[in-house]
Structures are given as structure tokens and as C-alpha cells.
């Protein structure tokens, strides 16, 4: 390839990446602009800059959606889900990757089917069962539902990380007298930690934004998650779009900040998981 062709290729790549970046950031930029405008200006022209900055939209959104409480509920539910999925998923993935499972094809089919099956199929039986045992409005119980829903994906992804670890490391640790638990905890976990972080970020994003299960099983005002309280901001006949945009920004901001801080490890983890399947 000549120098001119190389420069042209680089230019096309950079332009394409710039366009994709613009498409990705445009909704967030539009949300920020409209969160500082009164509702009338948003209805008139959502693409215009605010004539007068309305910082009180954030104050009203915080109080009207009770974000002080609902954000804490979302953080608790998300943290419990991440802990349960990563702990159980890593143990299961380790066994499936390092042991010969005769029924692996059946397990693969089951995991794939569990990943693609819609939660609506199980919603009514789950609700009646949880109601019978008094588990409605119980964040821990909802975290177990999330764990059951997200674990198949986590297991399939984490298994690729365990497969990428050389067998010689496991054999050497066993020869030195380590138990299987010690091999898992002291040899494998430090190596596959980028994969666990990747799973934690993905599962955390899913749990933070989940609406259907949260609104079904957490009905008390003190148990609402941030996403559900955001949905309740919209009135039946009228909506203050400035407050709604401010509330949406409050919900999105923690996820964006977390991803920006951990993006390098997240990308490294996704690349590491694709080495061997």
C-alpha cells in the first residue's frame, strides 16, 4: 500500500469514527441542553440552546422523583445483583471450562435458551409465588430474580476467560498441593478479573435500567427504583419536559461516569474474552 493510500485509509477511518462519535453523543448532548430549558422552549424547538438556564429543573426533578431514596434503592439492587451474578457465575463458568462435561451441548442449549427467553413468560408465575411467600417489595428477592435472568449470559461469557487460562497453571498448582478451591481463588480469579469486571459492568447496566421486573415486584413508595420513579414523573395529560430531561440526566450520569472511568479495563476485558471460546 502506497503512502497516499495509507493516508486516505486513515482519513476515512477517522471520519467514520468521528461520525459514529457524533451519533453516539448527540442524544446525551440534547438531553443536557433540554434539561436546562423550560418546557415551552423544548416543545417549540428541542434543538435550540436555552435562552435562560433553568437549574431549578434539577432541584424539582430530584425532589419530585425522590431520587435521594430511589437512587439508593437502585444502587442497592444493582450491587446485590452484581455480587450474586459474579460469584455464582464465576464458580459455574470455572467448572464448565475446566471439567469435561458430557452433557455440555445440552447445557449450552439450556443457557442460550435461558438467555433469549423473554421474562414475560415467567412474570405471572413468579409474581404469584413471591406474593404467596410475602416477598413483594423485597429488594433481595428481586436481586435473585435478576441473578436468574442474567446468569446464563454471565456464565457463557466468563467461561471463555477460564478457557483462555493455560492448563499448565492449574496442573502446577495441584501438584504443589493446592485444593481446587485454592486453584480457583488464588490462580484463576486474579487472571480472569478483567472478565469479571466486564460482566459486572454489563450486569450493572442491565440492572440499573431494568423496568418491568422492578415495577412489578417493588410497588411500595419506599422501594421504587430510580427508573420507575422517573417513569412516574410523566403525567397522564401533561409533562414538564425540562424536569423530565433533568431527571433522565441524573439517572444516566452515574453510568456514564463509571463507564468513562473503567472503559479501558472494559475494552481489555471484552477483547480478552474473545480469545478462545
UniProtKB/TrEMBL annotation:
Keyword vocabulary terms for this entry: Cell membrane, Membrane, Transmembrane, Transmembrane helix, Transport
Name of this chain's protein: Sugar ABC transporter permease
Lipid bilayer topology: Multi-pass membrane protein
Species of origin: Xaviernesmea oryzae
Localization: Cell membrane
InterPro entries: MetI-like (IPR000515), MetI-like_sf (IPR035906)
Family membership noted in the UniProt record: Belongs to the binding-protein-dependent transport system permease family.
PROSITE patterns on file: ABC_TM1
Presence of keyword Nucleus: no
Domain called ABC transmembrane type-1: residue spans: 71-262
GO cellular component term of the entry, any: plasma membrane
